[in-house]
Write the structure tokens for this entry.
Amino acid sequence: MAKSRALPNHYQDLCKLLRDAATLGSVDALLNWDQETYMPPAGGAARADQQAIISALTHEKRTSARIGDLLRTCESDAELKSDEAIAANLRLIRRDYDRATKLPTDLVAEIARTQSLSQEAWKHARSNDDFKAFRPWLEKIIALMRKKAQAYGTPTSGELYDNLLDEYEPGMTAAQISAIFDPLRPRLSALVSDLTGSKAKVSSKVTEIKAPKDAQQAFGVAVLKAMGFDLDAGRLDVTTHPFCSGMAPGDTRLTTRYNSPSFLEPLSGTMHEAGHGLYEQGLPKVTHFGQPLSEAVSLGIHESQSRMWENFVGRSKAFWSWCTPVAKKHFGKSFKGDVESMYRASNVVKRSFIRVEADEATYNLHVMLRFEIERALVSGDLPAKDLPKFWNARFNEYLGLKVPSDKIGCLQDVHWSFGLVGYFPTYTLGNLYAAQFWEKINRDQPDLEKKMARGDFTDLLGWLRRNIHRHGRRYEAAELCRKVTGKDLSPEPLMRHLEGKLRPLYKV
Ligand code: ZN
């Protein structure tokens, strides 16, 4: 961005207003983080009040008429728009502003209220394995999501779902996703059948040791430091459902949990969230906070960063060459693993019911099922009442398991109860982007494995910073993918990664 000349007042004022709105938003994020980590249970009601006020203020600030006026002035300033980065920024500010102002306030309020109630209803329905209790809420949520999608106008494709997807993966359509997912699914199913039919012993037993929480936390922090996560600008805390919050410039919070019999699961979770966190720390927030240029491209690209560190780094032999002695140092004599056994332990493939516990090979099948279902729920092809029947039949078809209860079937995820419809496919898009980026990184840095085996991730992070992080939202995901790898998104790199690693391990 041109620094030599002073930017006009209307642009500076616009950026200042966006920064104020983002700062309010960051207060909301801090309240959220606190709720998930340290808030005492009795603080819940007051917290809901605090958040309701803050989110209303944030929405007001983001949709103010003053932003609209300044934006129009900037858009008619030809000199300003001759700067490519500023032109991209303005285009995205317009997009966000139009989307935000298209939603009637009463609809926003109704969605917020329903989300909160529906999430509570879902929690109870899930713990009681009672789909019937959740069904009316699901119907309400889907109706509201259709209303929301309609408020944005008719999408080019004519398919309402695309307007919901656009919130999480701008520029992507359901038809494009189908074109990638449909041919990929049978190939994944075939791979999973071969792997799970193998007699090779691939087990994670060696990681099931007595590892005190303090030791696990210190181990996780050692890995974070090696990855390049800046702990002066971030933290690692404990929570029930791990997440990353890049809440403000200089403040990126990671969370993990230590309730697994294996120390591998918390480590993978920490590396996953740290992948998100490194992206957040690499965005140009200090200079551009509040502007699209300081934000992530999409959830798919965000997930590509987390899955890359979790899977492509964290489940590789090179990584364990470095990390096995680190684990020994933290866990002492009770840990008897070596590089080979840790590599095997990291790559166990098993058909299972729960998405968040699924391995690299089966994971995307879980996601594809959800994508098809939510698309059909929004189009009306699948009435909410038929969800369990449909889920169970498809699950059996894709994953070869008979779902014994809705609790570990269609009630397992929080997303739909919270109105997150159009979100699921971004998980698999993330895996696909990660694989495609990973091949390019290894072409650019042929000695990457050697460096990883020494615990040196500097050049890997440098590559991600240069090619992905520093651009913010300047390029849409598809464009970024082409710019970085020279090709459109393709399922081939992911298949090559999975086949190339897992077939030799399982001898199939
Ligand atoms: Zn993630």
